[in-house]
């Protein structure tokens, strides 16, 4: 059964209240997102961070153009507004959110789509708030890699109210309803340890090559 919005809000209020620093995987994704923004060629782009969590990424993005973070947790929005005053933050259920401001040049989605029950509606929201010719930059876990994690490492990837991972073809199908996919790539290598990933990610094998 899909958790209701109040229970999800309560979960994320507790989760983000204890946030201090983004982890090293977040840094890798941040670098990719910034490089993707640079690749658009848009100077000072208007950016929406759709599912901004504790707001740190929105804060980074606001150094390059006017940025708005949208987050279900009102507690996270309150904290982020104090920490990153150059950005704007909105507390809203993304799937029911109606944006009345100017359309954005870029929408960023960092590890969000897998935590939503209606993923097609999420993509529709991103499309509606973008200017014609705008860009969606989206990251999400690869279920094949997560399945190859040791059991003691999986729990941190499975603790949110909704976990609906998409494989490459499923992601392409849902995103492709509204967007022409320019690039799809793996960002973080070497974390799978089971099955064929044990060989591919072996330090000894890679050292030999």
In which range does the helix fraction lie?
40-55%
Radius of gyration: 17 Å
Order of helices and strands: HHEHEHEEHEHHHHH
Strand order of the largest sheet: 3-2-1-4-5
User: In total, how many beta strands?
Assistant: 5
Low-pLDDT residue spans: 195-209
- Class derived from helix and strand content: alpha/beta
**Whole-number average pLDDT?**
88
**Strand content of the residues, in percent?**
5-15%
Shape: globular
Q: Biggest β-sheet: count, sense, barrel?
A: 5 strands, parallel
The number of helical elements comes to 10
Distance between the termini: 47 Å
In words, what does this structure look like?
There is one protein chain. With 209 residues, the protein is α/β, with parallel strands linked by helices. It has ten helices and five strands, in the order H-H-E-H-E-H-E-E-H-E-H-H-H-H-H. A five-stranded parallel β-sheet has the order 3-2-1-4-5. Strand 2 (67-71), helix 4 (74-83) and strand 3 (88-91) form a beta-alpha-beta unit. Helix 1 (5-17) packs parallel to helix 4 (74-83). The model is unreliable at 195-209 (pLDDT under 50).
């Amino acid at each position: 059964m899909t958790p209701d919005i109040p229970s999800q809000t309560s979960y994320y209020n507790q989760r983000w209240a204890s946030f201090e620093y983004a982890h090293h995987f977040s840094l890798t994704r941040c670098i990719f997102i910034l490089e993707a923004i640079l690749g658009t060629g848009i100077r000072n782009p208007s950016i929406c961070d759709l599912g901004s969590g504790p707001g740190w990424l929105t804060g980074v993005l606001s150094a390059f153009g006017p940025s708005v973070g949208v987050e279900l947790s009102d507690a996270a929005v309150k904290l982020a507004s104090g920490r990153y005053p150059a950005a704007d933050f909105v507390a809203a259920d993304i799937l029911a959110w109606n944006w009345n401001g100017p359309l954005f040049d870029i929408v960023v989605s960092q590890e969000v789509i897998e935590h939503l029950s209606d993923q097609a509606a999420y993509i529709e929201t991103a499309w509606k708030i973008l200017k014609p010719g705008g860009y969606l930059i989206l990251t999400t876990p690869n279920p094949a890699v997560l399945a190859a994690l040791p059991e003691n490492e999986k729990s941190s990837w499975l603790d949110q109210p909704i976990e609906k991972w998409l494989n490459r073809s499923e992601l392409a199908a849902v995103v492709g309803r509204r967007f022409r996919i320019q690039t799809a790539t793996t960002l973080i290598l070497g974390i799978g340890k089971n099955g064929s990933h044990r060989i591919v990610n072996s330090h000894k094998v890679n050292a030999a090559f």
